[in-house]
Structure formats: structure tokens, C-alpha cells
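Quick log. Single chain, no ligands specified.
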Amino acid sequence: DRYYTTRPDGLPGNDDTGTMSAWAVFSMMGFYPDCPGNPSYTLTSPRFETVEIQLDPSICGGKDRLTIIKGHKRGLEGRISHTDLVRSGTLTLYSL
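-> predicted structure:
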């Protein structure tokens, strides 16, 4: 009752405040932010065949969605800027 509660501080030692869960979701989509304050992402192999992310066109260069497609040929690791990511419309990432 003292150390494990449903309050925000109810799990001792849990200082990531959801960071690891967010990283897991990002990486399963095929990209993840790896440097706070740097608007770019490391690309990796997506877990899903297709992911669609709804975007706000007023702040994403007129794009209303980002579609990420899992490719099936060998690709290279890399990085992509936030601007290039949201303005791409469709991004095909290949398995490493």
C-alpha cells in the first residue's frame, strides 16, 4: 500500500515516466528520436507492415498523414529530419 499505488509516483524507481514505452512505440514504427532537442530521428526496421499517422496539415507542410511501409529488401541505417519525415507523405523502410 505504501510503495505501489495508482498515483503518478506510485511505482518506486520508475523514473522514466513513460520514456521507454514511447521509445518502444516509435522504434516499432521504424524511427525514434535519440537526442532531446534535436529534431531528427534514427531509422530502423519497422515491426509492422504499414503504419499510418494522422498529421496536422497546418504545421506539417500541408500533409495530413504519414504512411510508413515496411520494405522487404536490405536497407541502410540512417537518420531523417522531422521536417523531411512529416513532409514525405510515404516512407518505405527496409529491414536491416
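The first strand starts at residue 31 and ends at 33.
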